Amino acid sequence: LSSGQQALRDADRRRIARDLHDDLGQHLLALGLDTAALAQRHPALRCPLAELDQRIQQARRALRTIIDDLPPEALAQGLQDAVRQQVALFSRLSGIPCRLELDAGAAGGTADGVLYRVLQESLSNIVRHAQASEVSVGIRCQDRSLKLTVRDNGVGLPQPAARRGSGLRGIAQRVDEAGGRLDVASAPGLGTALTMSFPIQ
């Protein structure tokens, strides 16, 4: 595809992702709330309504998977602006200071979407599990690769590795599917550093 055709294609895919989230996602959320309200009002129906709620949650997870495979709306203005906005949002919502080091011109083309999703998941994991008071994010181009590093000063990852949660496994899967590499450095009480490298195409 030419650059113009690719831009139009990405714009269409972002619109689809936004519409799925805003329309279908909100309907599924409302349906789940209605189901919970019915279960409160009609105790005799709690078992079948619980099964219905499980199916609604499965549908929401499936929708999230579809949306995650589409280009993030934030990338419409480029990777650097998207990363700045994500880091600022993280700090505002979590109250955790986050230092950003971003190489001028850092962008990986097809890797941008994966890097952005991995950054989102990494910051989300820090909020849920790390008990950190400081975070740093670095993005740089080096040796024909786009490198993302996310560090925190939290409690560290569980040992052994088999006890680690699905969030890190999801990150590893995304990186692997993009042909990238994930390096994890962590020790109890000494925080965690995730370094991800993606080939620039």
From TrEMBL:
Record-level GO cellular component terms: cytoplasm; membrane
InterPro entries found in the cross-reference section: HATPase_C_sf, HATPase_dom, His_kinase_dom, Sensor_HK_TwoCompSys, Sig_transdc_His_kin-like_C, Sig_transdc_His_kin_sub3_dim/P
Keywords: 4Fe-4S, Cytoplasm, Iron, Iron-sulfur, Kinase, Metal-binding, Transferase, Two-component regulatory system
Gene Ontology molecular function: 4 iron, 4 sulfur cluster binding; metal ion binding; phosphorelay sensor kinase activity; protein dimerization activity
SMART domains: HATPase_c
PROSITE patterns named in the record: HIS_KIN (PS50109)
Residue ranges constituting the Histidine kinase domain according to the UniProt record: 115-201
Listed cofactors: [4Fe-4S] cluster
Name assigned to this protein: Oxygen sensor histidine kinase NreB
Organism, as annotated: Duganella callida
Lineage: Bacteria, Pseudomonadati, Pseudomonadota, Betaproteobacteria, Burkholderiales
